[in-house]
Structures are given as structure tokens and as C-alpha cells.
Design brief:
By secondary structure, the chain is mainly alpha-helical. 72% of the residues lie in helices and 0% in strands. The chain contains nine helices and no strands. The C terminus is likely disordered.
Length: 244
């Protein structure tokens, strides 16, 4: 048992740092190769970019494990690339909602459903710049309410990562467009994270990471169940269009 704990403690930080590449490179290449992001939820880059930026600004006060900070920086770079490729190759209809200024899914001002690409980048710049200004003015430490708030907020947002894809798969009754390599990396990453989070020395990994990690692992398991049920077949919209 001690050997397993030692191996997890040595390998998990490496896996965490490399996970942005192992999880999303295949998805980026698949969208670029097929020239369509149909079936892929654009909310995944939204969630991961927002969460990663918040986690970066959480670190100065919390001083959590450095490997998690490095992972957050790399995740920003990978998700920016994924977002750009997905936007460049998005079809007019993605099985969710048309990209119009007002949507019927309850999002104010059609948030993250914009036609132009510029608002996506403006949102990310405003978020990062706004947090930078707040940190410069407040200079929060680990015990401050603000620092704990952005930490839990970022990790809670990240924990919801699988939910948009679960919803998209359920609507389409298919996992078409969502790479099984991404799912596999998520599930394997959950096992590594749980072993690392709970096997690390006390105080090295805040409880916020542990609680949100457990919730995300349950959601990833639900995605795995969907892939087993629906497979990678045609979406309902594709079948209906052929029958009509």
C-alpha cells in the first residue's frame, strides 16, 4: 500500500500538469480535421477558462500545490486553442441552439452564444483584467473571505465541466462529436486526482479541491454511462432529417 501511495504521489503531479494536453489535443485535432465542432459543447472551454483563471488568482493567497497552478496556466493555453478551433469550425446548427443574439435557453443577452468571435475574447480579457485590478487593490491573503470565495467559485465552476456535455448528449441521444479520448482522460484523471488529493499530506491540497473533485468524478461517470447507452451514432436531428 505504501508503494502505491508513493507512486501516486510521484506520478499524479506529472499527470496533472500534462492533463490539459492529454485530455484535449485529440478533440482539437478532430475538430480541425473534420472541419466541424458539431456535437462538442462550447461550454467546456467557457467552464475551463473561467475556472482556470479564477484558480490562478486563488493561488497567491492559498499557496496550494504548485503542480495545480502550472496545470491551470497550461489549461488556459489549451482551452484558448480549443475555443478558437471550435469557433472557426462551428456549424450554423449544433444540436443545441442557433447562434443568435437572443436564445431560448434562458441565457441573458445570449451569453456564450454570440455570432461574432470578438465577444468571447472580450469576456476572457475583462475577467482576467478585472481580477488583476481587484487583487492589486485588495492584496488578499489566504484567510480573507474574498480569496476563499474565488477559490471555491473557480473549483465549483470546474466541477460542473461535464454537465453541458451531458445535456448535449441527452438532447441528441448520441455522443457523436465528443471524443472518447477526452472521456477516458477525464475518468483516468479522476482516479489520479482522488488518490493524490486524499493521499497528500494534510494542508497540501485544500478541501475545496477534494469536494469539487468528488462531484466532478460522479459527473464523469455519468458521461461514461451515456457513452455506453448512446454510443457514437447519429444524432436524433440527423435521423429525423433523413426520414423527412
Amino acid at each position: 500500500m505504501a508503494i502505491i501511495s508513493t507512486l501516486i504521489g510521484a506520478l499524479a503531479p506529472i499527470f496533472l500538469i500534462l492533463s490539459p494536453f492529454t485530455s484535449y489535443t485529440d478533440q482539437i485535432l478532430s475538430i480541425h480535421r473534420t472541419r466541424t465542432s458539431a456535437g462538442f459543447s462550447l461550454d467546456i472551454p467557457l467552464i475551463m477558462l473561467t475556472a482556470s483563471i479564477l484558480k490562478i488568482f486563488y493561488w497567491p493567497g492559498a499557496r496550494y500545490d504548485v503542480s495545480l497552478l502550472v496545470q491551470a496556466f497550461l489549461m488556459v493555453g489549451v482551452q484558448v486553442t480549443l475555443l478558437k478551433v471550435a469557433l472557426d469550425n462551428r456549424p450554423p446548427w449544433r444540436g443545441e441552439r442557433p447562434f443568435t443574439e437572443t436564445t431560448g435557453d434562458g441565457r441573458p443577452f445570449g451569453f456564450w452564444r454570440w455570432n461574432a468571435q470578438r465577444p468571447y475574447w472580450e469576456y476572457l480579457l475583462f475577467l482576467a483584467f478585472g481580477l488583476l485590478v481587484i487583487h492589486t487593490l485588495l492584496q488578499p491573503d489566504g484567510s480573507s473571505l474574498y480569496n476563499r470565495f474565488i477559490g471555491y467559485l473557480g473549483l465549483t465552476i470546474e466541477a460542473t465541466l461535464p454537465l453541458p456535455q451531458i445535456q448535449a448528449n441527452y438532447r441528441a441521444q448520441s455522443c457523436k462529436g465528443f471524443r472518447v479520448s477526452v472521456l477516458g482522460n477525464w475518468l483516468f484523471g479522476d482516479m489520479m486526482k482522488m488518490g493524490y488529493f486524499f493521499g497528500s499530506e494534510p494542508g497540501r491540497v485544500p478541501w475545496a479541491f477534494k469536494m469539487c473533485g468528488m462531484f466532478q468524478a460522479c459527473c464523469d461517470a455519468c458521461l461514461g454511462l451515456q457513452y455506453w447507452m448512446y454510443g457514437n451514432g447519429e444524432e436524433i436531428s440527423d435521423v429525423d432529417s433523413r426520414l423527412s
